[in-house]
Amino acid sequence: MGRLDGKIILLSAAAQGIGRAAAIAFAKEGAKVIATDINESKLQELGKYPGIQIRVLDVTKKEQIENLAREIEKIDVLCNIAGFVHHGTILECEEQDWDFTMNLNVRSMYLMIKTFLPKARLGCLDISTLLQMLKQKSGNIINMSSVASSIKGVVNRCVYSTSKAAVIGLTKAVAADFIEQGIRCNCICPGTVDTPSLQERIQARPNPEQALKDFLARQKTGRMATAEEVAHLFVYLASDEIVYYLLRFATMVREDVNDSEDSEPSVCERNGMIPMHEQSEVINYDPKQGPAAGAKGTDGNAQTEETALLNHCTQQPPEPAAGSSVPARTRRQIFACPPQGLLAQTVTNVAFVVLVWAVVWSITGAECLPGGNLFGILFLYFFAVIGGKIFGFIKIRTLPPLPALLGMLLAGFLIRNTPFISNFVQINLRWSAALRNIALAIILTRAGLGLDPKGTDTIVPVRLQALKKLKAVCLRLAFGPCLSETGTAAVLAYLFLHLPWQWGFILGFVLGAVSPAVVVPSMLILQAGGYGVEKGVPTLLMAAGSIDDILAITGFNTCLGMAFSSGSTLYNVLRGVLEVAVGIAAGGILGMFIRYFPSHDQASLAWKRSYFVLGLSMFAVFGSIYFGFPGSGGLCTLVLAFVAGVGWSDEKREIEKIVAVAWNVFQPFLFGLIGAEVSITSLRPETVGLCVAVLGIALVVRIIVTFLMVSFAGFNFKEKIFVSLAWIPKATVQAAIGSLALDTARQHQDKQLEKYGMDVLTVAFLAILITAPIGALVIGLAGPRLLQKAQTNSKEDEEGAEVGEEAEACEPS
């Protein structure tokens, strides 16, 4: 028996975030759920859960609400979750922003409550056709507010905080008016909740990884609340367990408040659910008597309704001492015993590194001493991590951050080419190739999971819905520049570097891919600033760029299989086609298998699925080499991850997070080992010059073709220039596949093939070293100058942000 057996619950904004989690939690407790949202495509995923009916509804449209009410005979609980966050002070809030926010955050609740709680008076709609909580003499209304409201003033949330304060007032009024008729009205005021919208905004920060770490470090529990935890509170309020609580403000707050701009994205939050016995964070409000009898304020006097609200909020931190630039709390942390903060973190990291080395040394002995293989791997890994951290600290205002992968690449390069260090850092070539192939399998898995035909949000954003909206231009942009750069590089490699045609196209496809590690964060920063949003430039580049990468990887694997085939040209072509077919077929079969195994009812489902998708991907990459089909492994990995991800639908987000952690672990291996493969002594100046020439000419051709591909697509001249320049950066894909040809050549023990492979690797190395920083700077400088900044968000975009995204509301700072 569930806690909500037989109850009929109607809720808004149910497609994702807190609304989706609440709908699922209600259904699991036995309720019959009517889930509404404006976004039909995302709402469809919710309809597969037993006990959940879906309805497309715009909560700002009175007619749609009334039509829905006529379809439903009875409900027990109404949950108003829809909301939108406007960022800015009152000076940055236009009338359109004010009207839209108040319309969605407040007026929609007014319409929903008034429609589903009708007053029997002349001129109202026929009550017999509407939901009649009053007639039932029972009912439950749960509204979503925020800590950023009358509870707490928050910077850059003027209209949002105003709207949420109004929601609290509306909740109080409804509770006071109808409690004697059996109607309960409650309000939830969360702090920060981990949802897709919050993750997107963190990714849009100049240094997403550091922003997330800094953000989590400010959380008392070391993490954010989850949508599922907030859903538990919804279940509690919807149940009959609180029938005597007339009004409850459940506030997730934290004591360590920081109101500075750098504290974004959180102020006044505690992560996790609140124990209901904590009086300091729960308000019991009686409409007749005011706050609970006997409650005392911080001054010891009896509380009024307003002082109860203020006194039950977290107290402000003490002000810094006069003339001091460092708050007293910060000084205490710095000089605390035992240490805290940066000092403690430094000691912990050093101890961690020493402990890892000591454990490995105690097992392997000489292998973990200078000159040993494991010592070299650990030494390179830790210095690659340090190199990435150093580049992460390089911040230029208004510009995208320099990618950390550059620091990792240069760390490996310096280790290889510094005489004293290179003497005792020796890494076995087979180990190096194996570690890079593991990283390749992981990044291909992320790419496959990121391909989402339903357009849902993913960690690696590949929004195929953009293809439908932007139609032909997105397809042209996905295929034209990649193929033109590949063809140009192949011809130049044949003429300048004297590579065979197969190897020329291998080199071409290595260069043909853009870097998602540079392009996507840069586009998210521009998108957050409103640049190019009205014409969809950031979305176009992210969607087409992702398809561009898939095309380059597919072409590379096909040509790789042909290059290592012995026989006639026709035989090599047919073998290349065969390897493509084998990779697609094997990936499809394996993907279908892990869609259903493990099944939905198993424990630790996300971890088991992550194990299978990563394990099978690694087996595909290594197994394809073992069985003589080197071109099939990458395709198999892409297809199996895509097929499995489509079957997992929204549930794959947890798998993507785990895969992302695996990528963060192996990323330093990939870029550090790529850098360590390049030796200055083995490079001839003329070879480097020719490689740079191939790279430069191919890039110029790409820019020209890109400009032509976006012509006649509604963009002005400046926007065409920006789109053409935005695909300069090359990094992740080049590192992932740039060394694969060399590794395969070494297995064949053919010196000539190894030379070809080294040429490909050299071009990939130079491409990363030259284009990644230049491309990031070009995007950051050109974006605000060439793209139009939207004055206000369009209604369509804002409603899209609203659907199920009250998580935005849960991040008040």
Automatic annotation (TrEMBL):
GO terms for cellular component: cytoplasm; membrane. GO terms for molecular function: 3-hydroxybutyrate dehydrogenase activity; 4-oxoproline reductase activity; antiporter activity. It catalyses: (R)-3-hydroxybutanoate + NAD(+) = acetoacetate + NADH + H(+). The chain crosses the membrane at residues 342-363, 375-396, 402-421, 473-497, 503-528, 540-564, 576-597, 609-626, 661-681, 687-710, 762-782. Residues 796-813 have a biased composition (Acidic residues). One of its GO terms (biological process) is proton transmembrane transport. InterPro entries: Cation/H_exchanger_TM, CPA1_transporter, Na+/solute_symporter_sf, NAD(P)-bd_dom_sf, Sc_DH/Rdtase_CS, SDR_fam. It is a multi-pass membrane protein. Belongs to the monovalent cation:proton antiporter 1 (CPA1) transporter (TC 2.A.36) family. This is Dehydrogenase/reductase SDR family member 6. The lineage of its organism: Eukaryota, Metazoa, Chordata, Craniata, Vertebrata.
